[in-house]
Amino acid sequence: MGIKEFLGLSDDDVKKPLPIPTKWSKPFWDAAKQHKLVLKKCKKCGNIDHPPYLYCTNCGSEDHEWIEAKGKAKLYTYAINVYMVPFPFWDDMPYVVALVELDEGVTMTSNIVECDHDKLKKDMELEVIFDDVSPEITLPKWRPVKG
Domain 70-147 carries which CATH code? Predict the structure, then answer.
């Protein structure tokens, strides 16, 4: 008997929450489905926002463009979740939630994958990969640069 059955949980109880694209973030999620990482850049001042907002957080302009990111980042900080997480994430434990700093200067919260946890270190170089978690949503995740 698995833990789900032992606790009397249904499949609905253990569904992971997924992002809900908004009008201003939809291009980000559409690109992720194509395994592309894009960022919203202000045409007025050049500021890059992530997550994407309705307006530029630097100058307030709504005039923007989507640029393709290099897909490179450095590990800024992380936490390894080994217990006390919501039911939907039990099967993933232990897993890493991290803040990564992209070459373009913005930070992103995501997961570090394909890496032994004892090898994680601040400023390690990372590259984006894409996890097709549902037909509608693909999540950008990060792994150490192979080399």
Answer: 2.40.50
- Which DSSP string corresponds to the chain? --HHHHHT--GGGGPPP-----TTTHHHHHHHHTT--EEEEETTT--EESS--SS-TTT----EEEEE---EEEEEEEEEE-SS--GGGGGG-SEEEEEEEETTS-EEEEEE-SS-GGG--TT-EEEEEEEE-SSS-EEEEEEEPP-
φ, ψ of residue 109 to 5 degrees: the values are -90, 130
Q: Where are the domains of the chain?
A: 20-68, 70-147
pLDDT by 10-residue block (mean), the chain, 147 residues: 71 80 96 98 98 95 97 98 86 94 97 97 98 96 92
Longest pairwise C-alpha distance within the chain: 59
